[in-house]
Predict the 3D structure of the following.
Amino acid sequence: PSNRLELWALLEGGRMAHPVFREFYKERDVVYEERRMRYESSPNGRLIWEFITTAFVAHPYGFGGIGYPSDLKSFSREQGTEFYKRNYVAKNMCVAVVGDVKTDDVKRYAEHYWSEISDAPAPGPVATVEPEQRAERRVTLEDPAQPFIFVGWHIPAASDPTYPAYEAVASLLGGGNFSRLYKSLVKEQKIAVQVQSFAGFPGEKYPTLLGLVLVPAAGQDPVAVETAAYKVIDEAMGSRPFTQEELDGYKVRTRAQMIGQAESNESLVGALARAEEIQGDWHEFFREAERLVSLAPADLQIAMKQSVKKSNRTVAMIVN
């Protein structure tokens, strides 16, 4: 609300310009325990960690985001402060504001309360580029737990013109109960209880992954479920390509989601900031509708033939 804009600017300006890292080591230990909970105490978490570190051999995405236990136990408050000073600077910052406010007021409060934020140069972009994957990589985790399959194919970053095609492919393959994999594996063959496909894992700013999650039904061989999924995917790339009707349904669903985002201040502000940070221009959020309309079934075929192939595939599964 407009009558809280100045208070917000005051609080955020002080927090960003003059942070005080109270209870630094206590909070560092909390993060360490969170890592243990997510990646070490959960079979699926252990599998996803092995999957990420196998799929990316050079790019920092392969560090798993949170890093290793030794990282969390070793860095000091002084190192944390230096990291903050190097990265949390004005030239590396994007701020999106949505609400009952006027642009002139936002600018005035920003200039008044945020003028002491560091004006140091922004850190450079990540220079390491993930090399082309030339052979399938597989990870098998033996664990007395629910079998679980994670498959990923390397695809371009969200800023690439072909990225919308991969988003459409992910949705039509495993984006819901309308998708091909769900209909075949869950409804018809009844060999899986869950299917999910998505683009942009674990991030979208740099070349990323088209991901597929399969949860086999009780008593089913995970390898057989994986093979059945590839059969459906191969049909979509060959004898049964995605139809215009399927693509039109995806366009309607996606457009409805975009309208829903724009109707909520909270979701709109996140979408604008994401477009600015990942694609370099907040207007790209609105241009997504134009790219969506222009998609044709042939675009999906080209994207799949470019990336959805065995040599570009990383597979991780739990077997017991």
Remarks:
- The chain has 13 helices and five strands.
- The mean pLDDT is 94.
- The first helix runs from residue 5 to 17.
